[in-house]
Amino acid sequence: MYMKTKIFILFTFFHLTIFAQESKMSNVEIENFKKDIIADSKKIQTLTADFTQYKVMSFLDKPIVSKGKLYLQNPKAMRWNYTQPIDYNVIFNNGKIYINDEGKKSSVDLQGNKKFEKLNQLIVGSVSGNLFDTNDFVITYVKTDKSRIAKLQPKIKDVKKYIKEIQLTFYSGQSTVTEVKLIEPSDDYTKILFTNKSLNKTINASVFNP
Questions:
Q1: Which CATH superfamily groups domain 46-208?
Q2: Rounded to 5 degrees, what angle do the CA atoms 145, 151, 156 make?
Q3: Could you read off the pLDDT of 113-171 as tens digits, one per residue?
Q4: pLDDT tens-digit series, residues 42-75
Q5: Which of 27, 68, 189, 206 is the Cys-Cys partner for 183 at CB 3.0 to 4.6 Å?
Q6: How many Cα neighbours within 13 Å face the side chain of 40?
Q7: What is the distance between the alpha carbons of residues 171 and 19, in angstroms, rounded to a whole number?
Q8: pTM for the full model?
Q9: Which of 162, 166, 183 lies closest to 115, judged by CA?
Q10: Angstrom distance (rounded) from CA 86 to CA 77
């Protein structure tokens, strides 16, 4: 009986400790955080970063892990260059999405598809960190010892069909997003971690050619 009580107390303490690590920001902290991120994001002309993507689905025992490199040219050109486990790239440029799946090419016109256009805006905004000046989300701001997190829940009906919540994690002292988590209505999610980030270095225009 004593052992069970001890285990219960230990579990309760551990449970509370885990959740105590994340707390809501004060109104002053939120305003300062938003000002810093928005101001710095406006200075970003280009961004390159390595990324690791984890796709977690309820029917799989392990996440699907992909790796590659991201290229961003503000305001709208972006390339996701997947190198593992397969060669695959997605380019957002000139109002279109271009996909190259191991040599099989296709494209989608964003201007003729408001749904994809909005998703493109979400993706670009997620990576640059500048999603705070929109009325399209209910936003909750929290913090931990090492990071600040913005949790965005879409208001738009069409977007809700695909995205339940976007979580943007910024490590303390950094003004660019380090982790993006896209949670689907089913609670399956995609988590992307960015490393080796480089800002405002010249990117060859050919990178964004399909």
A1: Lipoprotein localisation LolA/LolB/LppX (2.50.20.10)
A2: 175
A3: 666 666 667 777 777 666 776 678 899 999 999 999 999 998 888 888 888 998 999 99
A4: 888 999 999 999 999 999 999 999 999 999 997 6
A5: 189
A6: 17
A7: 18
A8: 0.82
A9: 162
A10: 23
Q: What are phi and psi of 48, to 5 degrees?
A: -125, 145
Q: Helix (H, G, I), strand (E, B), or coil: what is residue 155?
A: coil
Residues ≥6 apart with Cβ < 8 Å to 118? 156, 158, 159
Residue 45: DSSP 8-state? S
Residue 177 CB contacts under 8 Å (≥ 6 apart), including other chains: 126, 127, 128, 129, 168, 169, 170, 194
Q: Where are the domains of the chain?
A: 46-208
pLDDT reported for residue 199? 92
Give SS3 for 170: strand
Q: In the structure encoding, which two tokens stand for residue 47, read together?
A: 């961004």
Given a contact cutoff of 8 angstroms between Cβ atoms, the answer to whether 183 and 165 are in contact is: yes
Distance CA 135, CA 119 (A): 15
Range list of H helices, the chain: 2-20, 27-42, 114-128, 157-160
